[in-house]
Write a structure and sequence with these properties.
This protein is an all-alpha fold. The chain has four helices and no strands. It has helices at residues 3-29, 33-44, 57-129, 133-137. The model has no long low-confidence stretch (mean pLDDT 85).
């Protein structure tokens, strides 16, 4: 599965977890919808201010599993975001390296061409002066 698709799946899972947490805390603890949402998000984010907390055994029991699955999903989502960032960075670096190597190859070809021209010109000068190679090197 592609990284973007995995990220969508995890973010969808996080949203579903928040909705489930909000509904469950609203029903089990009798909190308002906002307090339930607030507690669901702060618990999943591991912030836990302590101003709101479950008092029923059912709420506490639910919180145990909510934390395990919610925090795991949140950490996985952050891991995917980091992976996406590093993949994008790696692609950009590779593009720059390819561009640099292409420019380097073009410059080397130009230098080789200039060297060939100079060799050809030297040969023409030798031919005009009718100097053989041994005399030319002395």
């Amino acid at each position: 599965m592609k990284l973007v698709n995995r990220l969508y799946v995890v973010l969808t899972f996080l949203i579903i977890m928040i909705v489930i947490g909000t509904i469950t805390y609203h029903e089990l603890e009798g909190w308002s919808s906002f307090e339930s949402l607030y507690f669901s998000v702060t618990t999943m984010a591991t912030v836990g201010f302590g101003d709101v907390h479950p008092v029923t055994y059912a709420g506490k029991f639910f919180t145990i599993f909510y934390v395990i699955f919610g925090v795991s999903a949140a950490l996985y989502a952050f891991t995917l975001l980091a992976e996406s960032y590093f993949e994008h960075t790696e692609e950009r670096i590779q593009e720059k390296m390819d561009k640099y190597n292409s420019m380097k190859e073009k410059r080397l070809e130009a230098i080789e061409g200039e060297i060939q021209i100079e060799k050809t010109q030297l040969q023409k000068i030798r031919d005009r002066l009718r100097i053989n190679k041994e005399d030319f090197l002395k």
